[in-house]
Design goal:
The chain is an all-beta fold. It has no helices and 16 strands. A hairpin with a 2-residue loop joins strand 15 and strand 16. The radius of gyration is 24 Å and the shape is elongated.
């Protein structure tokens, strides 16, 4: 008998599922086998291209040479940073002339932001609070308001326009008024609100 054996591309890897509050990121480990007896670099392609909320920690993905037919385990990280509420799906493709092609289905969900704090602020001082525009649009208008503890806590500014993916800082001042030592700041943009709790200290 004569047998002809042909290698065919492997099917998609199990779906990777991510859930994280808007404004945060989460990382998951991806493992796959590299069977070539030579080391290889795998190129990375996202189905959504530059609009994808997924990215690889390292590009290209480097695989060591396999020493036997069992292959060598290759480990890399996938980062999900949502830019909107709700679910988004994408396809990750890893490709190498030596190692072949791998496909991974990615499913990420951007959830409502979790409250932060309480953040301590010294009496007569201030605290910088990081603010990031996670939205993909060219610019986004942000509004800031102290909705609790306004007698003791104040803001340097109430509005700011941020470019896409830009990091900035919101400065909160604290000057104790009577017995008011706790406060809350709301950061709002595009129907999403981030809640930050404050605690004044002496």
């Amino acid at each position: 008998h004569k047998f002809e054996l042909n290698a065919v591309p492997c099917g998609p890897e199990p779906t990777k599922t991510f859930r994280v509050p808007l404004g945060s990121s989460v990382t998951q480990t991806l493992r796959f086998k590299h069977y070539s007896k030579a080391a290889a670099d795998y190129t990375v392609t996202m189905g959504l291209g530059a609009d994808s909320p997924f990215e690889m920690e390292t590009v290209p993905v480097k695989a060591l040479a396999a020493t036997d037919n069992q292959g060598v385990l290759t480990i890399t990280e996938i980062i999900f940073t949502p830019s909107k509420l709700g679910e988004v799906r994408d396809t990750l493709s890893l490709s190498s002339p030596l190692g072949g092609d791998y496909t991974v289905i990615l499913a990420g969900t951007g959830m409502q932001p979790k409250p932060r704090g309480p953040l301590d602020v010294k009496n007569g001082g201030s605290i910088p609070i990081p603010v990031k525009n996670v939205f993909p649009d060219a610019t986004t208008d942000f509004e800031f308001v102290v909705d609790q503890g306004g007698a003791s806590f104040s803001l340097k500014e109430n509005k700011k326009t941020l470019a896409a993916k830009k990091d900035d800082v919101l400065t909160v001042n604290y000057k104790k008024d009577g017995e008011i030592t706790s406060g809350r700041v709301l950061v709002s943009a595009r129907g999403v609100t981030w809640v930050i709790y404050l605690r004044g200290t002496d």
